[in-house]
Amino acid sequence: MRRSKKREHLVDVALGLFYAQGFHATGVEQIVSEAGVARMTLYKHFPSKDDLIIAVLERRDEQFREWLLNYMTKEEKPKDQILAMFDALELWFNDKSFPEHRFCGCLFINAAAEFSDLKQLAHKVAARHKGVLTQEILKIVEKTGLSHPEELAAELMLLKEGAIVTAQVSGDKQAAARAKKIALRLLAEG
Q1: Are the CB atoms for 11 and 55 separated by under 8 Å?
Q2: Residues 104 and 190: beta-carbon distance below 8 Å
Q3: Are 52 and 46 in contact (CB under 8 A)?
Q4: pLDDT tens-digit readout, 108-155
Q5: What is this structure's pTM?
Q6: Are 85 and 175 in contact (CB under 8 A)?
Q7: Contact, 60 vs 107, CB < 8 A?
Q8: CB–CB of 104/19 below 8 Å?
Q9: Residue 180: which of 81, 85, 106, 73 has the closest Cα?
């Protein structure tokens, strides 16, 4: 399905605003003003702000997974691919991966916090993103031949998520490097 340039522009603008300010703190008026479109144009493409939020989360899911997995799979060996995940995070935390957006944490963690009811669609989309990433990490872990790949993948995801939250909450740009040291120990023990 071909999407219009205005629709894509609205999603891009909204992504930047939601990421920097939050979903609830960002109003429709600000989005249309910054996008340089009429309010009717926004509603032509998105019947509600919630529809725009879902489109933004889906866009970010695609962007983030593609970026992370491409970075990781530049390495040949599965263990090196896993460790590369933490190198990628360090670049992200230090504003070297998504130049159009200063690091403001994880949009999916932020969405899950702002839409805390597990039944809300935005929360479900955030959870799905984390689940898909876990499955991708599991595929790589399985290639290592280490025992208990599901458990190891879950532990690695916990390290990843913990590093993201630590970098966001405390401004600790070294959180990924510390998480990588722990991942090295997990891979050596495996």
Answers
A1: yes
A2: no
A3: yes
A4: 999 999 999 999 999 999 999 999 999 999 999 999 999 999 999 999
A5: 0.94
A6: no
A7: yes
A8: yes
A9: 85
